[in-house]
Amino acid sequence: MLRVSNLDLAFDQLILAHNMSFELAPGKTHVIIGPNGTGKSSLLKTLFGEVRPQRGTISFAEQPLDYKQLNQWRQSFGYMPQDIRLDIGLSVLEVVLLGQLKALSLKLADSLLEQALRALDQIGLLHLAHRDIRTLSGGQCQMILFAQALMRDPKVLMLDEPVSALDLHFQQVLLEHLQQQTQENNWVSIMVLHDLNLAAQYADNLLVIKQGQLIAQGSPKQVLSADLIHQVYGVETDVLYDSLGLPFIRTQRQQKQVA
Ligand SMILES: Nc1ncnc2c1ncn2[C@@H]1O[C@H](COP(=O)(O)OP(=O)(O)OP(=O)(O)O)[C@@H](O)[C@H]1O
Asked: What is this structure's pTM?
């Protein structure tokens, strides 16, 4: 279990979390949603130990985050940040292998190489293994960073808007793979998404954040109502339900279309 208790987080006068508490269970995909600039990325950075909160405690598997032992804390984490630009002269395979940086030495173990190639194969990008990472498209880069995060074999996997550059096919590949691996390996997976329909489809647990408050938490069916969406984003929506009974959100046009 990843536990956050009584978290206060602010940059000067800007309050991003006020007395925030939540628990994230293993084997589940947890999705954070909320308006731009509300502090979702900062919250992930706080869990990673990159940003220090003013108050509160964070623990994983009953071990508290100790800032003097950050390397040890981060060994449990795979972290895929929002920024996907990679301006380094490495091949795709080398970038994936960096996920296992601590295991790399002058002689590369065959098993590690196989693991990296398998990770690329599983997401359908083995054919890119020997390309220079700088020659890839934005979406391809995003998928490679996902493979790198998987390579870490994390206990906690954090993904900040991991599908922002992906087409429909690769959105599905990444999110299905993530959910399957999370269940099989009992990871705590935490993902920031803006697309409420993807959040509805893939979240086991949805956390809604606005102005420093966790204003709702639960299954997408429990959480995603037109009222809540209006409260969070100020947007009128119709909330429908798909064939699996999951919410499906459609925004209402502000202006009537002229025929
Ligand atoms: N190191 C920092 N110092 C000062 N302010 C910061 C710092 N990092 C982030 N902020 C501010 O904190 C606020 C929240 O930023 P953050 O990136 O966490 O939001 P977000 O919810 O992830 O946004 P988005 O949905 O747009 O990606 C923003 O106003 C941002 O400018």
From this structure: 0.93
